[in-house]
Amino acid sequence: MKRELPLFLTAVIGIFMILSFFVPHQLVSVPADFLQQCAVIMVAFGYVLGGANVLRVNFDGIYKQKPGWIYKIVLVVALIATVVVGAVEGPGFLNPGTRSKWIYDNIYSNMSATMFALLAFFIASAAFRAFRIRTAEAGLLAVAALIVMLGRVPLSNALTGWLPEWARLQTVQEWIMEFPQNAAKRAILMGAALGVMATGLRVILGLERSYLSGED
Amino acid sequence: MSLATFFEKLDRRWIFLAMGLLVLFPLLFPLALPLFVSSPVASFVKAVDSIPDGSKVLMSCDYDPSGIPEMVPMTRTALRHLLDKKCKVIITVLWNGGPGLVDKVVRKVVDEEYPDLKYGVDYVNLGYKAGDEAVMVLMGQGIVNAFPKDYRGSDTRSMPIMRGVRDYSSFPMLVNISSGYPGTKEWVQQVQARFHLPMVAGVTAVSAPEFYPYLQSGQLLGLLGGMAGAAEYEKARGEKGSATRGMDAQSLAHFFVAFCILLGNVVQWTKRRRAGA
Amino acid sequence: MRACGVPAPAPAPAAPPGVTAALVAVLFLGLIVTAAVAAPPEPPSGLVWQDVPNDAGRAVMLEWKPSPADSARRVTAYVLERATAPGGPWTFVDSVTADKHEKKDQGVRRNTEYYYRVTASGPDGLTPALSVTGPVMAKSEWFNRTRWSVLVAIAMFFAFVLWFISQAQAGKKPFVRRIPGIDAIEEAVGRATEMGRGVLFVPGIRDINDIQTVAGLVILESVARLTAKYETPITVPVTYPIPFTIAEEMVKGGYLHAGRADQYDPNSVRFISPEQFAYVAAVTGIMLRERPAAHIFMGAFYAESLLLAETGFATGAIQVAATANVHQLPFFVVACDYTLIGEELYAASAYLSGDPKLVGSLKGGDLLKIAAIIVVVVGCVLESGHIHWLTQWMVTQ
């Protein structure tokens, strides 16, 4: 029963949700809408579960003084402080002037943007190290990449702005983006969509049972 | 040591330093490079221009602080565009790290440039709701049901701006600014395809190629791609914002990456030729 | 033509009769002209209704002919009202601007009779309605007729998959080409074992509602079996709570299947954070501190893909990546030793397990792809010949 019931529920709800796409009648649409709302509630509750897990794992690491346990203390203190401050400040906790807003603006926002900014450096080093033209196809890819990369910035307008419009880097890169790139993207999108359908079907039909547990 | 060997063994931190300096220099000494408006951006502008003045427009800002450089300029310019048309803007945020940032951006634009506008009458920030696509579908049954309280905790039902707003049919357009999931793709799949709500989008540069099929099929009426798209939008609107200023830095960064690709290959060819010889 | 109610002025005393009459006539004409200009617009006509198809009976479409005053710009809006009886009481539904002559009322209850009327509103007032239309009833439909094409595609897909599954179960296992990236996983685990270091498995950064996460977690079970067999430590950092609990079960299950249940370490699976860059900071920290020799990235990735892959490359680890997020593939291709592209991630579980039922579903998907290609080619040819029925049949609402 431990495996059969979840499999049965998955199949019934999965088929029902597929049905709701085709049947607008209230006998199907009303329960389907209710299930959608349940999904919203479950996702929100998941954050509570996540917080509890973080505390459990990190308290364990601190207690056993595992490598880097000092950083675990920093993490736990930051987590508890942020949650307590936000809870005390109530629904308007991110209004201007609140402590939560200060944490958000001066800590979270900046750290998040900093991590994202690292990408610029890593792209340069990856481009230098790994983009090797070993075959004709790779050469074609490199030429297209250079045209698109350069064509998307105003410096290319300064360099090729004097050419006829069809020959400017920006025009050529627009053509590459609109036609060959678009065609390839569409094909990959369709293939990936079929892959999603296949995997979803395997889950609904109970062929893929991995999400239940590792036992067969 | 030959030049090729020197570059081959080069510590990547020198590359990081060069990139950092090239990005910093034009921010301190602007180059004012010329911008031309590309056709996806022109389509975006035309689509927003076609919204009847005074309409209520749904604007979904789905990003967090990591998307500031690309998304915030788009948000500002789009908000100005709509407010200049006297549209009433209803803002939602589907990223849990985003509401504070979006609220800050919106407040700054309105307080500094449209001080006569009133919150709850001319614009509202409905804030964040967990659920990703489920929220999009829920909004199709009723916006107020999906967001009974706004970002500031006030009751949305009693707000003048929400009077007469039922579901997506109450809006002539959706303006979506998004930097990942949930975002433009989900809005197209769940809302544009189902409810046929006309839609324009601003996305990150790295994901822009993914949305060209939607642009070509007409599911998106316009597309802003990354900071370049934001800068072109500013140019089309006659503004000079942070995106325009950032394009100088991005230009040099792109050229540097192109240089790294070429240099890396020259080093490789030289090495192979030596090995062959 | 009705007067506007302004009383005529009293005749001036002692004025000549002819002048008085002329004055009165002029005044009267003036009143008539003023009344003509100030009168409310004529009402609209021809109000008709239609049940909105393919819905749950919650909407009715109403259309009317514009007021004759519309062309003279004396109409600013049309006002739609609804009642449950022909005589009222009337409830305001909505108003539309003068250029619109239709309105969808989405606030009706199904199988309930309603009556509608529409009036025109101008600067000088609201005209009474010319007529009432009804009874109007919105009906719930059992099938959305615009979605036939999707139903046909799904039915074909089911049929193909079930056919190949039955073929596979009858002993005719379909051929699946070699996927080097998946074969490389065992090589990667082996190399980590030789170096005496661990394996890092990253199942993407999305929640369990993303099929890529499901696909990644399925592969985790196979990887956990390998690490159990070779007695190599495995670390699995996870972003969301539900994949976290499933990842724990997958690793535990892998160790159980390998007969090494006692060697399972409960701290091998770690919940980190749903925040993208907080997660990547933690994972790159694990890479740099613990130095696993093999990195396996299988799932949905976004901007953090290059950060993970480049940091991993810098540590000298062998890296295998798979994602269906096409915009991140270039970064993995550049920085990883093996990359699985798009559907290869979804095929991995079938490939690894070799289960005929799973392999059969792969072949079903391939056949549907061939059908899609045929439809695209046929559609292009038809559209080029200005024949639109296929395209129109495939448009859904």
List keywords for this structure.
B: 2 domains; 6-stranded parallel sheet; 6 strands; C: alpha/beta; Rossmann fold; 5-stranded antiparallel sheet; 19% strand; elongated; disordered N terminus
| Stretches with pLDDT under 50, minimum 5 residues of chain A | none
Number of helices of chain B: 11
Summed up, the domain count of chain B is 2
- Compute the average pLDDT of chain B: 91
The largest beta-sheet of chain B arranges its strands as 3-2-1-4-5-6
Strand content of chain B: 5-15%
Number of helices of chain A: 8
Question: How would you characterize the overall build of this protein?
Answer:
The complex is a heterotrimer of chains A (216), B (277) and C (397). With 216 residues, chain A is mostly helical. Chain A has 8 helices and no strands. In chain A, α2 (26-63) packs across α3 and α7 runs parallel beside α8. The longest helix of chain A is centred in the N-terminal third of the chain and has 38 residues, at 26-63. Chain B folds into 2 domains: 3-30 and 249-276; 39-239, Rossmann fold. Chain B has 11 helices and 6 strands. Chain B has helices at 3-8, 12-28, 39-49, 68-84, 99-113, 133-141, 143-146, 184-195, 208-217, 226-236, 242-276; strands spanning 56-62, 88-93, 123-128, 174-178, 199-203, 223-225. Chain B has a 6-stranded parallel beta sheet with strand order 3-2-1-4-5-6, sandwiched between helices. In chain B, β1, α4 and β2 (88-93) form a beta-alpha-beta unit. Chain C is α/β, with parallel strands linked by helices and 397 residues long. Among the domains of chain C are: 45-136, Immunoglobulins (Immunoglobulin-like, Sandwich); 173-354, Rossmann fold, CATH 3.40.50. In chain C, the strands form 3 sheets. Chain C has a 6-stranded parallel beta sheet, sandwiched between helices. The longest helix of chain C is centred in the last third of the chain and has 29 residues, at 356-384. Chain C is elongated, with a radius of gyration of 37 Å. Classes of the chains: A mainly alpha (216), B alpha/beta (277), C alpha/beta (397).
